[in-house]
Amino acid sequence: MALPLTLRSSVTPPELELVASQQLIEIVPLISMEKTAFISGAYGPLRPPNKAKIPLWIAVNLKLKKKCHIIAPSWLNVEFLQERLTLETSRPDFSSLPFRFAEAAKVILDVASDDLENPEKIRSLLKDLREARQAKSREGLKTLDHSELSLPNLCSMEINEIRPYFLQSMSILTQLVRNPISDPTHRNA
């Protein structure tokens, strides 16, 4: 999303991907490795063909070196995404998705699309899902008042995208509530 500098009060998408890469994901290692300690915790040991749970950033590093296969999360498949898309287009509220689904899906599709079943269809469904959810966000922003905005089940990337508009709108609404515009028919001469 390209925003002018004045509206960039949010985290960038690559920064959100970095945060999302801390979540654990399953892999099938192709190498053996002893338990390794990092600041975030100790992971391993890795013993092929046993599955292991490690942070996404480690999985990406191993995948790029052809030392593992990434196992897609349960929500990153055609059936689940098709079901969520159907819910998004048939109901007024947002369907429940993992909080960082957009970022994690992008990282996995960029690095490990060969480990996914039907990655092009998954990309297409994610795009359609994103568009349906953005349309709902826009509708929600149209009903914005000075006291609240209720958009439950928004995900990290979606919150980040509407934050600049929401902050600017709330600032303007707060000013209008504090200093109501006087009626132009009652001007003092």
Automatic annotation (TrEMBL):
Q: What is its main location?
A: nucleus
**GO biological process entries:** chromosome segregation; DNA replication; double-strand break repair via break-induced replication
Q: Which residues form the GINS subunit domain?
A: 75-175
- Per UniProt, what is one Pfam family of this protein? Sld5
Q: Which GO terms describe its cellular component?
A: GINS complex
Nucleus listed as a keyword = yes
Q: Which UniProt keywords apply?
A: Chromosome partition, DNA replication, Nucleus
Q: Which InterPro entries is this protein grouped with? A: GINS_A (IPR021151), GINS_bundle-like_dom_sf (IPR036224), GINS_Psf2 (IPR007257), PSF2_N (IPR056784)
In the UniProt record, does the keyword Metal-binding occur?
no
Family designation: Belongs to the GINS2/PSF2 family.
Fill in the subunit field for this protein: Component of the GINS complex.
Name assigned to this protein:
DNA replication complex GINS protein PSF2
